[in-house]
Records
---
Amino acid sequence: MPDMTSPAPGEAMSPSLLAAPRSVLLLQGLMGPLFCRLGQGLIRAGHRVHKVNFNSGDRAYWRLPGGIDYCGTKEDWPDALRGLIRQHAVTDVMLFGDCRDYHMVARDVCRELGVRVHVFEEGYVRPDWVTMEEGGVNGHSSLPRDPEYYRRTAALLPPVPPHSRVSSSFRRRALQGLAYNAADLFSRWHYPH
């Protein structure tokens, strides 16, 4: 899990998030403090930020204002999301993985309403890096599929600059997962669906 101290969240964002002010709606992140730190960075950069909590695990890691508990059903989610986008004048939605049930619906609703979607890739393939694309990742990525494109492009790029290593800790991730799932388990009554 990156410590998000260098660069600060919001500094290495896609160009569409660099033009202030934006109204950003965060959906699910991974278990842990990443989205809270991302929210802090976005707020420091002058953006308005809201976060949808789908369970108490999400809520436990969101320590900022703007948290929204979604307690409705999957069937009600498209209309609820449309309402949130309109209510908060959302310009950008950020989510972790674009193939979760609620996130697939969110991509469709955002496309319908002209709201940008920024997707963090599920599964860290590259150590020390977190990837994010506008629109989707992996099978939903807009990146070219032609391997020759990458060979040509890579040949024109300078060497990768030195970067800080991100320490990995199974113990920390396990404790974050335990805290997330315990919060979810002990307050299921609040999120009945």
---
Amino acid sequence: MSESTGKYIRLNRLIQKETNSSIIVAIDHALTSPVLLRGLVDLNRRVRECVEGGANVFMLSRGGAAMSCREFSRETSLALMMTASAAGRPSGSVITPIGSVEEALRLGADAVVVYVALCGENEPEMISYLSKVGEACEALGMPLIAEAEYPNAYQSLESLETKFGAKYLERNARLCAEMGADIVKVNWSGDYDSFKFIVEATKKPVVLAGGPLLPDEEFLNRMALAHQAGAIGCSVGRNAFEHPNPRAMVRALSNIFRKNYSGEQALAEMKAEMEAQQ
């Protein structure tokens, strides 16, 4: 598949060439969460803190982008959300299209984002929509970030792993790549070996989803394992914008993916930064 000039330029902004890394903050949760998360109330402050911490990409809705774009640095990229969760069902969320690739171009976005929930009631429609977005992105030079995640992002990873498992993520991630995704966001599959296999089978840059809130040590160690397994970065929401110090947390993630810090090193430096600010 040939790559257009526009897609090449935009991908250069999404993935930092010097470190082959992408630190994404997903701050679109008002589109999907069953309740408004308190960390989203002061959106401008959260975006500013995450930019200062080293985030180079933000996943936002059109309204969120309009509210917070003045907090971007010159190097910050917008990844426009094109799906929302309409409802939570036993089999997972029903995903609703809410935007277009053309709108993303008008807004100055460097990527569009599609949440891909399989095994739900509308799986055929989900795959068809992803295919249409992939085709439009290829035609218009727009990178596609596909979120190959478990169907319900607000359950615990442990319960989702039990119900769906790594095989679900393997299938979802490879399907997203086959549909034209340039970057694939994947949940943690439970261990290093299974995640490494997903990265290898996807054959596209992979970023690890932050998932539900976790203790800092567990979260950063998981990120470091994902980096060792081949992930080029992360896409973190609640564990960044709900954190007591989003700036320090995003800096810890940046240190893992850009400076090859271990989870322990990143945690120690984050704690030192937080203590110095008290």
---
Amino acid sequence: MSWLDSHCHINDAAFRDDLDNVLNNMVFYDVKKAMIVSSYLEDYEFAKTINHKEIKFKRSLGIYPGDADNVDDDLFNKYYELYKSDDVTAIGEIGLDYHYGKENKEKQIEIFIKQLKIAQELDKPIIVHTRDAIQDTYDILKKYPCKGVIHCYSDSAMMAKNLVKLGYYISISGTVTWKNAREPLEVIRTVPVDRLLIETDCPYLSPVPNRGKRNEPSNVVYTGRKICEELGINEEFFKFIINDNYDKLFGI
């Protein structure tokens, strides 16, 4: 059983000069599945060109909350048409982000809910981004139930437990390896392993020992091994579980 990266942005400009090396590193470190996440139409088009005979890629597309102010009906309809494509496995990342302020809170909520309704209509999983907005995110997800994952989870263990009760998976990033990782460690000890996923969110959030460098999917092994170490579980067993979780959520 191989490792996987449930959330990566190798379609980002940060990888354009050495993408082949990044893919080869994935194979070398036995990362054989990955979800390529796109927030922009041009990134999604590039994501469709990324392939490797030894890696199974899936693709998602979503309107990022930070871009809510730039979305008009014409642009939203373009996303909607793509959401209907079989190539779009999941709708995301979508959600709420109040980190830089709440001035456009109502617009973010509007766009989030519209995409949740589409996910319900199309019966597709969602990939949720939430930053400094966990209570609003939870309340909305409870009102508009979907299947999905809370990506790069960074809130409390108690809220993670509540989200799991709604049916969501919790995805852990490289922050669990950082020295100040008190909350991520509490989360992995609280959430059942059959509701966990792992991710890089590359090119961001590199785990130790590569913190401070550009992140890439091969680094997901450090996150996975840290979780195994903290929980005292066998790596092969953990890989089996997260592959099963990934396949159940996103389809084999």
---
Amino acid sequence: MAEILYSSTRGDKSKVTASQAILKGLAADGGLFVPDHIPHLDKTLSELKEMSYQDTAYEVMKLLLTDFTEEELRYCIDHAYDSKFDTEVIAPMTEADGAFYLELYHGKTIAFKDMALSILPYLMTTAAKKNNIKNDIVILTATSGDTGKAALAGFADVPGTKIVVFYPKHGVSPIQERQMVTQEGDNTCVIGIEGNFDDAQTGVKKIFTDPEFARELDEKGFQFSSANSINIGRLIPQIVYYVYAYTRLLKEGRIADGDEINVVVPTGNFGNILASYYAAKMGLPIKTFICASNSNKVLYDFFGTGTYDRNRDFVLTSSPSMDILISSNLERLIYHIAGDNAEVDASYMKKLTEEGKYEITPQMREALKCFYGGFATEEATAAAIKDLFESTGYLIDTHTAVASSVYSDYVKKTGDKTVTVIASTASPYKFTRSVMQALGKDDANADDFQLADKLSEISKVEIPEAVTSIRDAKIRHDKVVAKDALADAVRSFLYK
């Protein structure tokens, strides 16, 4: 099998192995690591349909993580996708109202981030051993709500690691915040910032690309890496569940081998939908990538006009994990549609930093014809939850509802009846108040945990352990800092 090496989207000519890319997280020039080519699946879809989630994961990941041995990779997979998921199939699908909802929220923190962040700590520690790393690895992460808790759960008390998570203090749901601030583990640190997710993400990227800080850390026995989807070790495991979903449809006779499907992905930072794009490049027959945005519709506008423009008001919505105006992983797509041209990508990213926007060429827009952008207002999101529950009894969260609403609009506009998979990215219990409001059952006097009890009564769905376990848990992290004080906050945690 040909070795795959990784380089920066912005032109750093040095190539690194998969394990080195995972350890670094972000390239030295601020770019994201991309593979030198995207390999094709070497098992047929008919062969893959007979495999478990774990075996499917191995067949996909071995092709992109070529410097991991089979023994190393299977160890990582088997320890990631085990009884910490509350369903044996890991990523089950439910058919509702003409679409297949791929449930990616059966892990420890009831959000799709568990699918990748359950394995990343194993990939990271294996990579450290392979590369004879003696420093402690400091995972530095910005979160819009879900990545933070999933990363904390994955890295808590993992020897040789520390983890620092920044989140927008007033930009996550009460359950999301409670999950993070009650996190145990001597190596964990959670800090709220007075700003939004983009402020947190920008601050983290600034730290990553500060060579003085890197030298300072190295002298003290530390080095940074990332658990955000900018890390290729986050992105590659996400490819797996699209392949798995297709092969389940094939196994159940819903499609024939080679039939195209559509995928609908509620999208913020663009990592989840990019994973489906990579799956297609590896040979999965996907016809249309339906990118679903909330009221922060920067991606909807981009796919409609070819101009990416973050110069707009930041809107707090009921789907906070998508409240993002700088979609980091879009940079990888820009790199690819520019013909894997790092110089072109770097020029666009420079414009984004300096002017807040850029416009791609007509030729690049042509390469995006397989993408469809849609968005859902707050009213449409709530209606999607209510309508689906009342017509089918199936309950979805606010982020999945954005995707459901956009898909409904897509079918009305296009008449396209292609079999469709909707990425269901979080449990409705993570956003109890918003879901209860959508159902017309909100109680202003009840807290989010009391609302969870009521939601369970209405839906006949048991409250996940991820929620019950934090109801009375002790708050361990209460630090809040200004958006320009992230570096000092990291120092105060590491050097204490």
